[in-house]
Design brief:
Blueprint: E1 2-5, E2 8-12, E3 18-20, E4 42-43, H1 44-50, H2 61-69, E5 80-82, E6 85-88, H3 90-106, H4 125-142
Antiparallel strand pairs: 1-2, 2-3, 4-6, 5-6
Length: about 140
């Protein structure tokens, strides 16, 4: 049996002992709501419908979920879980896109695609052909 006291999750085991649930947040992490209670909750499906199409395609629900879980360029889309449903708000979408625009304005255009240590120089056709020939040679030597 689970007991939810404010934000501390406790578990009552078969002996009647009360202990912290393994899924509970550590005590040093305070509860921070992801959205304001005054904001209208919409499912990720509805959020995908409300977003404009890009190149004739709508934004996939899985893309919105990835933005919630992993983020995009270090920014995450705010969400709440209501049972089996994942919800966000139109305001959270607006904040997310605004933060992305602010990132664009702070970072020079030539360094946006890759982190500084991973910046690649353009590959020429000759370099690509050489790399393919080397890969073929390695495969032949390996008998593949």
């Amino acid at each position: 049996m689970r007991i939810d006291t404010a934000h501390d999750h406790l578990l009552v085991d078969s002996t009647g002992a009360v202990r912290p649930c393994a899924m509970a947040r550590p005590a040093e992490q305070p509860f921070v709501p992801r959205t304001s209670p005054a904001e209208e909750l919409i499912t990720l499906t509805e959020a995908a419908r409300r977003l404009p199409k890009i190149d004739g395609k709508k934004v996939a629900i899985s893309t919105l979920w990835r933005w919630c879980r992993n983020g995009l360029r270090g920014e995450r889309l705010e969400y709440v879980r209501l049972g089996r449903k994942i919800c966000t708000t139109p305001e959270a979408l607006q904040r997310f896109f605004t933060r992305l625009v602010e990132l664009d304005e702070r970072v020079p255009p030539d360094t946006r695609s890759l982190p500084p240590g991973l910046k690649r120089s353009p590959v020429t056709s000759k370099q690509r052909q050489r790399a393919l020939a080397e890969a073929d040679a390695v495969l032949r030597r390996a008998g593949i």
